[in-house]
């Protein structure tokens, strides 16, 4: 047996994810949960509902989280890390509040959160923290003693997140027809968000010009493109583009959209495109519908060969990265000096979101940050 690894002061890991419907009857209530108070046009909701119905009302995200749970437990057991792993979602069962209640009743006092969102932004960071605060408030109202909750730092530039995506892009290139492979461009995609949200993503000192959200994605894109060039000897031109835009049309969101980008590349004579969804942790509905269905249909219409590269999902290298991040944070909490592993130019992200990081339009309590009202 390997030497036991020390996760103290933490006594549990909570995998915190988005959640998704698991059957047709779940779709509308799930969308109501997601969009409550977000001002999304009715037309857009009808359209997104259809994406889910087209897949039998089942989002792949829950099974992917089950696979990630298995991968984490296997990795921890194999390395002598004795830390129970629980799972709760923001928008569908198992709901965060229910999971957290069970954890508190099981006696957990110091909980570390792994969010299935790798980058900064209101939607990808603070909103998760707001939902953690909501869950703590609910448990407080039930008279339960509240645990202390910390969240693992953003892992977008951790090798365990980046390396599986490099393999994914290499695999997609290999899958293209021989005569177009070397000329292929890479379209790195992520979720479009309002430009105002991008500009205020991350800590205040980096606000403006797309903020941490755009900078972090550009750093990952460049890492992958550089690694692909090194391994294939071919310089594939690349660009960061966006997908899954929602919201009112008069509000500016990050562009270009992947479909417009495919059209533009095709018109410019580019012979093939690999779509690499670096903004997402798993092949969930935004990937299966917006890329594999919609963008792939657009490419077929253009006669443009495309491939979509795999997300990280339950890759064992990602599970190992999570273990390293847990041990890194635990050691930091114990006052030890640790190496903080990160690729690229930005360095390891902060452990605790500072005040003013990824602000909300309408301020609400958020846990696990410097502005948390909870201990
Ligand atoms: C940055 C970001 C991520 C990546 C980080 C992360 O992973 O957290 C992400 C992930 C996801 N988004 C998802 C689903 C949805 N997102 C929506 C709406 C929105 N997302 C936004 C941003 C993001 N979203 C924003 C700015 C909105 C507009 C409304 C608002 O300002 O809040 C809507 C409403 C309908 C629509 O308009 O699309 C749905 C249904 C699912 C589940 C997929 C599945 O079921 O498999 C996942 C993983
Ligand atoms: Fe943040």
UniProtKB/TrEMBL annotation:
InterPro entries: Ferrochelatase, Ferrochelatase_C, Ferrochelatase_N
One CC-aspect GO term: cytoplasm
Organism superkingdom: Bacteria
Matches recorded under Pfam families: Ferrochelatase
BP-aspect Gene Ontology terms: heme biosynthetic process
EC number: 4.99.1.9
Alphabetically ordered keywords of this record: Cytoplasm, Heme biosynthesis, Iron, Lyase, Metal-binding, Porphyrin biosynthesis
Family in the record: Belongs to the ferrochelatase family.
PANTHER family: FERROCHELATASE, FERROCHELATASE, MITOCHONDRIAL
Cited function: Involved in coproporphyrin-dependent heme b biosynthesis. Catalyzes the insertion of ferrous iron into coproporphyrin III to form Fe-coproporphyrin III.
Listed name of the protein: Coproporphyrin III ferrochelatase
Organism: Streptomyces naganishii JCM 4654
Taxonomic lineage: Bacteria, Bacillati, Actinomycetota, Actinomycetes, Kitasatosporales
Gene: hemH
